[in-house]
Amino acid sequence: MKITFYGVRGSTPVSGVDSLIFGGHTSCVYVTANNGDSIILDSGTGIIALGNELLSNCHDINMLVTHNHWDHIQGFPFFRPIYQDNRNISIIVGNVDYNDKDAILTQMSGSNHPVKYQDLPSIIQLDTELAKQDAFSLASFEITTQPLSHPDGGTAYCLHADNQKVAYVTDNELSPVNPPVTSWQEWLAFIDQADVLIHDAQYLAEDMPLKQGWGHSTVDQVVELALQAKVKRLYFISHDPARKDSDLLTIEASLRTKYQHQLAIEFAREGTHIELIASL
Ligand SMILES: [Zn+2]
User: Fold this and answer.
1) CATH number at residue 66
2) Residue 252 forms part of a structural domain
3) Which of 137, 243, 261, 264 could be bridged to 233 by S-S, CB 3.0 to 4.6 A?
4) Rounded to the nearest whole angstrom, what is the distance from the C-alpha of residue 115 to the centroid of ligand 1?
């Protein structure tokens, strides 16, 4: 599999000199299997640049959305393939707690957006049920799911293809005040021996307990989980928009020092491209 990060910031896009290293767009990750099948993970503003690249081919588009917070759907109205005649776009949305599971589409209605989703010329199929299942197939990928511990709910996904496993877990609070919808042991089983874990980590230990209940983990909690699950590489996304690039570089360097020789850790940069080495 190949992975490209198109958006890594959390909560809201940012711009300016303090976001030039990691980029300013919100969540969007593109995963491609060796046979060319691909899946878009989330539809934050990072999807806009990806959409421009996808205009030149006519492949079916498959999208998994974790949940409906703005930073995971806000790029969709500007994803240009939705304006292509008869372009097939399949969207599976995370299992959120509200009845507005189709919010990625209905944000294009009323006075929010000049083009209404009902008028789009592409062929969009939205599925609000699949993410409730433990596992399903999408193109040549096998997908497994786990409920996120996050306000308003949502779904984490593992993508299995080419004898490899990529876990996409954002946004998720590993140690909430109330009992989590997914326990630590369940997370360990879910991400067990993943080639890559992509997880949010907006917070540091010193941000707690103030940010407890906000639906995100601390970087150290995620590293501990990844180590116990024997994950091979860990990529952090959904960076706190208030943190400057210089802050992220400092946190990343301290984690690499602290966990040296234990785990490959990286704060994902917009545009980062990874090719997973084929398993024997
Ligand atoms: Zn969220």
Assistant:
1) 3.60.15.10
2) yes
3) 264
4) 25
Q: How far apart are CA 65 and CA 92, in angstroms?
A: 6
Number of domains the chain contains: 1
Q: Does pTM top 0.85 for this prediction? A: yes
User: How many A from CA of 263 to the centre of ligand 1?
Assistant: 26
Domain membership of residue 280 (yes or no) is no
The alpha carbon of 151 and the centre of ligand 1 are apart by a number of angstroms equal to 7
Helix, strand, coil % over all residues of the chain, rounded to 5: 25, 30, 50
Contact 25, 45 (CB under 8 A): yes
Tokens of 203: 């917070």
Q: Provide the domain limits for residue 113.
A: 2-275
Tens-digit pLDDT profile for residues 207-257 = 888 888 888 999 999 999 999 999 999 999 998 888 999 999 999 999 999
CA 235 / ligand 1 centre spacing (Å): 18
